[in-house]
Amino acid sequence: MEPRLLEVRRLGRTDYRECHGLQRELVEQRIAGGIGDVLVLTEHDPVITLGRGTPPGSVVAAGVPVVEIERGGEATYHGPGQLVAYPILELPEGRRDLHRYLRDLEEVVIGLLGEFSLEGQRRVGWTGVWVGERKICSIGVAVRRWVTFHGLALNLHTDLQAYRTFQPCGLDPNVMTRLADHVELAPTNVLGEVLLVKHFCRVFGMELPPPAPRGGEQLGFDGPGFRPLPLL
Question: In 10 A of CB 137, how many CB atoms?
């Protein structure tokens, strides 16, 4: 059996609405069979997104765009210093279970945190990943014809003050944390991306396409308009 290949697209910093539009385009292409599985990695300009479970009128954020979207869950914040991953995957027959998919995304983040000798944890009744009593990663997904979109947001060196104006995922804002508060040197977004791809491939049993040499340098993937990802 041929290995499942994962195309990784690193977008750098993006406007949320533009990236949301890209996700929807990729979902349509994946459903039609025009592309394979894709993992979109990005960092957003400041924005608060409202999932389907957000209570009406619960978010008032002066100066920060607020966008209603189709993912599950409640309100959360995206901004600089946060690693955001959007898997555009066609779930295979044996994995068409959204609860399992959410647990798999959590496992990806738990593996990444383990690289820094941190124990990522789950909480019964909640989606996401915690370090001790603090939440470090939010997860919210949507699925269309078993093709996934939306995904996870991991706080690396995010400004946590941005959470103070609302209840992220229905929680007290003080529960949010970031990797920078648990390690001596906060990882760059590039390092976070490399480790996330490593553990995503491990959890989902996928491989990157063969690297193509360019000027003697090996790249983890290649594509017009996208930055290269170094191999581990």
Answer: 27
- Within 83-222, residue ranges assigned H as helices are 98-114, 189-204
CATH number at residue 126: 3.30.930.10
Q: Which of 19, 137, 169, 201 is catalytic?
A: 169
- Residue 169 annotated in active site: yes
List of residues 6+ apart from 96 with CB closer than 8 A: 146
d(CA 183, CA 63): 31
Looking at residue 93, what DSSP letter applies?
A: G
What's the structural domain count of the chain?
1
- The domain in which residue 83 lies consists of 4-207
Separation in Å, CA 78 to CA 25, 50, 64, 75:
21, 11, 10, 10
What's the predicted TM-score (pTM) here?
A: 0.88
43: confidence class by pLDDT, cuts 50, 70, 90: very high
**Residue of 48, 72, 37, 29 lying closest to 165 (CA atoms):** 48
